[in-house]
Amino acid sequence: MDADFTHIGELGTLTMPEALWDRAKTISAVIAPLSMQVVVGGAAVQAAALALGISRRQVYVLIKRHRDGSGLLTDLAPGRSSGGKGTARLSGEVEDLVREIVRKQFLTRQKRTLAAVYRDIAAACRARQLPVPARNTVERRIWALNPVEVGRRRGGPNAVRPLQSAGDEVPVIDTILEQVQIDHTVIDVIIVDERERQPIGRPYLTVAIDVYSRAIVGMIVTLEAPSAVSVGLCLAHAGTDKRPWLERLGLEAQWPMSGKPRQLYLDNASEFKSEALRRGCEQHGIKLAYRPPGRPHYGGIVERVIGTAMQQVHELPGTTFSNPVERGRYDSDRKATLTLRELEKWMTLAVTNYHGTVHSTLGQTPTGRWREGMDVTGLPAVASNPTAFLVDFLPVVRRTLTRTGFVIDHVHYFSNVLKPWISRRDTLEPFLIRRDPRDISRIWVLEPDEDHYVEVPYRTMANPSVSLWEHKHALARLHERGVAQVDEVMLFRTIEQMREITATASKTTKRMRRDAERRNIATTAPSGPPVPLQPPGFSEEQTLDTESAVAQVPRFDQIEQW
User: Fold this and answer.
1) Given CA atoms 247, 249, 255, 259 in this order, what sign does their dihedral have?
2) Could you tell me what percent of the chain has a pLDDT over 70?
3) 8 A C-beta contact, residue 447 and residue 405
4) DSSP secondary structure, 77-130, as one string
5) Residue 204: left if φ>0, alpha if ψ -120 to 50, beta else—which one?
6) Cβ of 484: how many Cβ atoms within 10 Å?
7) What is the pLDDT at residue 504?
8) Domains defined along the chain, listed by start
9) pTM
10) Exposed e or buried b for every residue in 321-353, given b needs 16+ CB within 10 A?
11) Nearest-angstrom CA–CA distance, 145 and 139
């Protein structure tokens, strides 16, 4: 049973309290630049010590920890104590006194030192015959304060005002992956299902573009509506080596643009503001920035690329064009021929063609520009473990551990790795669990002791892999029948019945075909030799090798000046 889970050796991102997480961000902002220097001067160490309110020795310890670590924010997190059971060990009266004196003595323009504030706290405790807290305990209380609030009270509004570009000029980007923009769109083409080759509707595209080189570093084509998961999948695609993915598609195309962005530039859609996305980006040193309201030229680069891609999509069979007037009497459903996987291949070949096309603004190809950037910055940081990287961006649920494992939405999960925690489950807080909505047959559980993820499968291994949307449809079906008490056996029996109806129906609706295709994509891994992509206009008997297939793909048009 031990082989049923995977140990993910990356620190968790959601276990820290918010205040402690903010403190880690403050430390990282000071220590990370110093750790990149070959020699750190005494003046720089002294300035860092003053900025963080710690000793010079602690600064050197943090620099070494950052250099020896994996480049994650949690490498610099202050040490955490269980405090008995995760609670403060100071009495309520002492906590109130510490809080009051910190507010009156530390959070002022006088900028009193931590040592002076601690002396006042100790004197006040003795005067009231209360136990004097240790100095490091007071330090932790101060470190837990919101750094923005601390900066505002001690230095004024200008001390915490974020850097902004002057006027309406978009900030200049100087190197690759300095800024990556992500956006979604619905693709203007009807696709067909793999089984019956009947239309199932329009898919969605999520794309990430490197602003410096105009290269596309990440792309996801899916039947799922845009969500925080779409963003996480696109980031995982951008931050990992694409060669294994290209092999699974059966393509020999070159797509060398990969790496973790330093800044992610987004619009203000709700899926771009999830807790999982924010913490995941902070964990991997990715800064989040949002487009200022009312300034459409911010973030316009990714939108222009998407618009150009859609113009090329209009040449595919089954296109819906941009509007009904442009479509005219063209029957998009009847002309549709491409499956989702074939469209993904087509988009991939179109992207690789675009990378080799001279860009009108750059005066060179995105590939050439990317290589120039690499000559300056070196090889970009690529996620070594794609699964662990993706897990950091998946949605989160929290559950208490039971004798039989975890129960999430009537589904049981268990692995032998849980046994040491089951024996002391009454002393543990609810576990943080991440779940991929595309396939809920496994979950990733954050260890309470080591902050590593472990993979935990279904308790009943015979249950089929299902997606979260299929699971919800089955629950809705049971509730429609008036079933008040839903159990796991009943739930999966309903899912199987729904699948049989879809599979055996002589004529299915577009929605049923679409749901069946979503299920196949979510639960079926590619196997066997890949089927070569047949571009539009070719009969089923005709196939092309990779080079000729690339030649048949329409290139992205010359992109207008941005």
Assistant:
1) negative
2) 76
3) no
4) PPP---HHHHS--S-HHHHHHHHHHIIIIISSTT---HHHHHHHHHHHHHHTT-
5) beta
6) 6
7) 67
8) 180-390 (3.30.420.10), 468-523 (no CATH)
9) 0.59
10) beeeeeeeeeebeeebbbbbbbbbbbbbbbbbb
11) 10
